[in-house]
């Protein structure tokens, strides 16, 4: 269920999405308010679950994670036991940045960050040793054109 937000809330969210580390004074200046009302709005939005934990966006290439693979998975298994094992396997793999269950011909898509093709192969071998999959297609991203976590609030 969507939470009702006014224009000031949306301005605060845009400022936080741009840089959550900026001061309350700076956010208040950007949204045309003072610090205390901005803090109260942020607290209320956190309590309502609009915002999750604050994190830092790291540069994967500067940390040696040069390869980004999109992994398309088809499975012939759809039982709850298989799904639980698959979910467990994904949650225990730090290389998996995103995982989505899809409608259509492909059952799952994963976004996997690794150092190189050899590291991807190690990930792949470990995954298929844990869970049975029917078909796996790995697509190497040649260039990241756009990446954001920001929502259009």
Automatic annotation (TrEMBL):
Record key words, sorted = DNA-binding, Transcription, Transcription regulation
Q: Which InterPro entries match?
A: ArsR-like_HTH, AsnC-type_HTH_dom, Dimeric_a/b-barrel, Tscrpt_reg_AsnC-like, Tscrpt_reg_AsnC/Lrp_C, Tscrpt_reg_HTH_AsnC-type_CS, WH-like_DNA-bd_sf, WH_DNA-bd_sf
- Tell me which domain of life the UniProt entry assigns to the organism this sequence originates from: Bacteria
Q: Where is the HTH asnC-type domain?
A: 5-66
Task: Tell me yes or no: is Transcription regulation among this UniProt entry's keywords.
Answer: yes
Q: Which SMART domains match?
A: HTH_ASNC
Residues forming coiled coils: none
The protein depicted here goes by the name: Lrp/AsnC family transcriptional regulator
Organism of provenance:
Lacimonas salitolerans
